[in-house]
Amino acid sequence: MPTQRAGAPAPDASERRGASVVEALVSLLLGLFLTSLALTVVARQRAAVAALDRTSDALAAVRVARQLLGEEGRDGDARRDGWALSADSLGLRAFRGVGYVCGPGTTPLDLEVEVEGVRLPEPAKDSILILGSGGEWTVAALDGATAATPCFGDTGRVAETWHLSGIPPTGAVFARYFERGSYHVVDEALRYRRGMSGRQPLTPEVVRTPSSVFERSGAFVTLFLEVEGSAAPWHISVAAGGEAPRG
Amino acid sequence: MARAELAVSRAGADLLRARAAADAGIVDVLGGGSPVPPDTLGLGRKWPLAAGTIGGARYRVDVRRLSREIWLAEAAGAVRPDAWSVREARLTWSMDPAARTGAIQGVVEVGPDVSVAGLSGVHVAAARASYALPDPLACAAWNRVRDSLGVPLVLPPVATFDTAGGGEPSLGMLRVGDLLAAADRSVSGSGTPGPATGVDGCLTAEPWNWGDPEDPLGACHALTVVIGSPGSLGVDGGVGQGVLVTGGDLTLTGGARFYGVVLVGGRLTMGSGSRLVGVARAVGGVTLDPDSEVDGSGCWAHQVLAAVRPVLGPLRVLPGTGRVGPLGDGDG
What is this model's ipTM? Predict the structure, then answer.
């Protein structure tokens, strides 16, 4: 604690008060400045975060569109699978897996298979393409699927008995299961629609519609995807299996 | 967020590299000079075709037998060492002698609405008949195959084949163009085939040397070839064995003898004591002079197709199919 030296004059009370006002004013101004600065930084940061969010959403939309359409296109064929193209949609067979044929089942409509893919076959929505030993494909609806005994040993695949709507070709050797679906660029997102059900969004709602369009270009179908924050559209090309679909 | 974007971008780049490696591997294998898979491999079994590294990503290509002739070529690609990150597959076809012989409907197959003259010269030998010339062991192999396929013991002399594929005398998925491109030797005009030998033995590169099945001790006894002629061809005398493909007519004269499979884009004419042992397919019909003959033999057809499998058996992408998938995450 400071002590007053003996013999020194005592500080003037008014002098002490004046110094306190200046200090208070400086403090006040400094506080106001710092508060203003903090508010500005916060505001700018929020704007930056929002911009970053938009950019991230836009990049995610482009990435999802590129990945999904690329995968669907790789496994499909425009002519064989009857792709349907319009400015805002691409309809196709969305393949979900394959089946290795073990042999015929107990009835002419049954087929014993081992399956693998991104998901198991679902009778409610899947159809089957069956390859005969002569190289011909036959299509049938999948009416049911029940568990069966594996025929190729320990492959890790799932063995099933498929109950089909039609008789599979003689000497069936291989199968592919798919659902009929379509991709749409509507309502500010890329959406997927299975059959006649609703269109489910696959991307954040950052897609500019209707300026984002599907177009046929040679052996490819290209999605010109315009997203928020991007000056030019992204070109997402899907190989159409050697032949582009009819527009 | 920036770190997350960077991580996602890196993962995407790794996936692309792995996929590019798998693509390159399978294209390389199924491109020129693809190997012939072993016909002893059981259904559902895999056979390794190739493995390597491209652009820092590794790949592996296997082929899995789905039927006698249809094979699934599977490629896997990865950047990381612990697991394969992408898998893709293509359907392929490889000529199988048993399947091709088993598909024969008659000793002489012709296109629809064409004439067959001299039918009495077509002999419908029993599939088990023992010929003096072909290797008896080869016939035993064919008989085993015939039994397993349920092929009729006796073929009819003449059958009509389906020309839906363009009316070509194809051999399974192999159209005339494929057969001509794959042929060991290309000939045109007319000539006399026969064994050609030198100091080093059989001169296999000679275009008119089609082997000599009639001389068991000859240097060219085992030579079995695929002969292609883009247009019409005349064979005047001589002897040969293998698969003979012509884009136009084929005329055998002067006592010519041929053993094996004949595929004719036009009309097959046999005269002057000529003889064919095996089977024939002629889009434009057949004319046999009274002193010529066709001895039907599934055994001979099977034997020559087995001998030329290295030429006609390389894997080919099945027409009308591209990639098939998606496959699962495992190694299958």
Answer: 0.81
